[in-house]
Automatic annotation (TrEMBL):
<dbReference type="InterPro" id="IPR029041">
    <property type="entry name" value="FAD-linked_oxidoreductase-like"/>
</dbReference>
<comment type="similarity">
    <text>Belongs to the proline oxidase family.</text>
</comment>
<dbReference type="Pfam" id="PF01619">
    <property type="entry name" value="Pro_dh"/>
</dbReference>
<keyword id="KW-0274">FAD</keyword>
<dbReference type="GO" id="GO:0071949">
    <property type="term" value="F:FAD binding"/>
</dbReference>
<comment type="function">
    <text>Converts proline to delta-1-pyrroline-5-carboxylate.</text>
</comment>
<dbReference type="InterPro" id="IPR015659">
    <property type="entry name" value="Proline_oxidase"/>
</dbReference>
<keyword id="KW-0642">Proline metabolism</keyword>
<dbReference type="GO" id="GO:0005739">
    <property type="term" value="C:mitochondrion"/>
</dbReference>
<dbReference type="InterPro" id="IPR002872">
    <property type="entry name" value="Proline_DH_dom"/>
</dbReference>
<dbReference type="GO" id="GO:0004657">
    <property type="term" value="F:proline dehydrogenase activity"/>
</dbReference>
<keyword id="KW-0560">Oxidoreductase</keyword>
<keyword id="KW-0285">Flavoprotein</keyword>
<dbReference type="GO" id="GO:0010133">
    <property type="term" value="P:L-proline catabolic process to L-glutamate"/>
</dbReference>
<feature type="domain" description="Proline dehydrogenase">
    <location>
        <begin position="1"/>
        <end position="71"/>
    </location>
</feature>
<protein>
    <recommendedName>
        <fullName>Proline dehydrogenase</fullName>
        <ecNumber>1.5.5.2</ecNumber>
    </recommendedName>
</protein>
Length: 73
């Protein structure tokens, strides 16, 4: 639980930084945790971060393919 909370805090910090500094900053969200990915996409929308590759998502090949599929849609 502490690891998830720490990841969430870091994700919030970095997404806010990306939103403020635009194209000067890029972020790779690497997680196979569905809730973390959902949190990131929701927060991107709230902060107005465009879907232009400024924030990318990655995970180990074969881990939670359903999460990757949902991101691709």
């Amino acid at each position: 639980e502490a690891t998830s909370q720490s990841y969430s805090r870091c994700l919030e910090l970095m997404l806010t930084h990306v939103a403020r500094h635009g194209p000067m900053c890029h972020l790779m969200v690497a997680s196979h945790n569905e809730e973390s990915v959902r949190q990131a996409t929701k927060r991107m929308w709230e902060l107005g971060i465009p879907l232009d590759g400024t924030v990318c998502f990655g995970q180990l090949l074969g881990m939670c393919d359903h999460v990757s599929l949902a991101l691709g849609m």
